[in-house]
Structures are given as C-alpha cells and as structure tokens.
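Figure 6 in text form: structure in, sequence out.
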C-alpha cells in the first residue's frame, strides 16, 4: 500500500516536469515576440527569421487546415517559385496561399496567389515586400491549443 502513493507522486511530478519543459520555452518565445512587437510595432515578430501564424480559414485545405499553425521563413526573391506556399500581408490581413504565377511588370515583380481550396486566384497581386515568408511546415491543430490557453480561467489555473 505504501508503494501506491509513491507511484502516484512520481507520476504527478513527472507530469509537472513535462509541463514545465513545454511551458517555459513557450513563455521565453512569447517574451521575445512581445519585446520585438514593442521595438518594431509595424513588423510581424519573428524568432531567428522564423514566423508562425494560426490558420483561421479553409482556403488552403487539404494542405493546410483550420487551426493549423504554419511556420514560415523569410527568404530571398530568388528562392520563390511557382507552387510555393507563402504568407503575406494585404489589406491589414495576413494570408497563406500558393504562388500560381510570377509577373514582371515595369521592372516590378508581382506574385499571383490562390488558395488550394479556392476556385479563383486572389484579386490583388502581391509584391515581395508584402511577403512575410515561405512555408516550411505546419503544426497540425496547434491553433486549438493556443485558443485553449487564451482562455483566462485556463491560464490562471495553470500558473497557480
């Protein structure tokens, strides 16, 4: 009988350590992003050139789904080709779509984009300076976790 409480205590301690291993890096990451936001409020914060965005629409399904977190990296113009997935800013929105065409007009390079799940291409062509980065991966359904932790009751329950 004395063994049971020790085993339960071991499991409880193991879970607490695992939680710390996950939460502490997230807190450090968040603090770095907050500092960047304060220093350069007009730029999207990054972590060594890597940016993450939560997907809120199904325009890129089945490749990228709602609640996925996409990971993008800033790249040079030369590295972007037709078929690449990019995240870009347009009309105060951040969108992740695929490049379907590149066009050089009056010495200016424009990208035509389209969501994989959309019937037609995006209305507005994208300039390189609007691009946040090129898609390098995703964390499936991680956006649900972020939504869960944004709940104040959950947040305070965890930190207390």
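Output sequence:
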């Amino acid at each position: 009988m004395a063994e049971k409480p020790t085993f339960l205590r071991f499991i409880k301690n193991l879970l607490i350590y695992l939680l710390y291993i996950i939460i502490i890096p997230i807190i450090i990451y968040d603090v770095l992003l907050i500092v960047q936001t304060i220093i350069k409020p007009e730029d999207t914060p990054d972590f060594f050139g890597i940016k993450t965005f939560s997907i809120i629409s199904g325009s890129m399904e089945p490749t990228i789904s709602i609640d996925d977190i996409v990971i993008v990296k800033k790249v040079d113009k030369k590295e972007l080709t037709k078929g690449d997935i990019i995240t870009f800013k347009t009309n105060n929105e951040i969108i992740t779509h695929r490049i379907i065409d590149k066009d050089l007009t009056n010495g200016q390079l424009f990208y035509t984009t389209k969501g994989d799940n959309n019937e037609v291409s995006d209305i507005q062509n994208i300039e390189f300076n609007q691009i946040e980065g090129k898609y390098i991966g995703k964390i499936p359904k991680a956006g649900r976790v972020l939504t869960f932790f944004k709940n104040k009751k959950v947040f305070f329950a965890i930190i207390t």
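Caption detail: The longest strand covers residues 93-105.
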